[in-house]
Specification:
Blueprint: H1 2-23, E1 29-30, E2 45-53, E3 64-70, E4 76-79, E5 95-102, E6 110-116, E7 123-130, E8 133-139, E9 150-153, H2 155-160, H3 166-182
Antiparallel strand pairs: 1-9, 2-5, 2-7, 3-4, 3-6, 6-9, 7-8
Helix pairs in contact: 1-3
Length: 183
């Protein structure tokens, strides 16, 4: 009886762990209440943006590509028109590096991409380096919708991620019960 209960509890804990792992994969989303006109672009700090275009993107793009990123304290950096078809920017399977200047920010926790044009474009990922923060990579691997700021805002999840979720607490409870039943 105890062995059957232990096996059942282990299976439940395993399934909960799998569902927790699956739900933690982040997907880019349209920006909510994002207003580029609020950005102050007085540049005193430099950032490096490394953008990798997916091998399943269009061969090249003539689209206009801009990015904006920042921290949880309202420091926003805006880089308009990174595209340059004459220099073969954003071709399929390519990596492009940009030096961007803007206000000094702490840990970068959001990044949005804006694309307008007829061709389409699929970035694989965007990596941002800044002197006040660790490098951060935002994985897209999806075509960017036209005329829409699209990306990630992890600023609010940073403070909540230190608190265990309800599923984690349930897993801890099940493991505790298993340890108790084994004694």
């Amino acid at each position: 009886m105890i062995k059957a209960l232990t096996l059942l509890l282990l299976q439940v804990a395993f399934l909960l762990t799998l569902s927790e792992a699956k739900s933690s994969i982040l997907q880019p989303e349209p920006a909510k209440d994002f207003n580029i006109s609020q950005i102050k672009n007085a540049g005193t700090c430099s950032y490096t943006a490394i953008i990798t275009t997916s091998c399943s993107s269009t061969r090249y793009t003539r689209d206009q590509i801009s990015i904006s990123f920042g921290d949880a304290y309202g420091n926003q950096i805006y880089a308009p028109r990174l595209d340059d078809p004459s220099s073969r920017t954003f071709e399929r399977c390519s990596t492009d590096t940009f030096e961007i200047y803007g206000p000094c920010a702490y840990q970068i926790c959001y990044l949005y991409v804006y694309r307008t044009g007829p061709d389409g474009w699929k970035p694989e990922n965007v990596k941002i380096y800044g002197h006040n923060s660790r490098a951060v990579t935002f994985s897209y691997n999806t075509f960017i919708p036209s005329d829409l700021w699209y990306g990630f805002n992890l600023c609010n999840t940073a403070s909540s991620s230190s608190q265990p979720s309800a599923q984690k607490w349930l897993i801890y409870l099940i493991v505790g019960l298993l340890v108790f039943l084994q004694l």
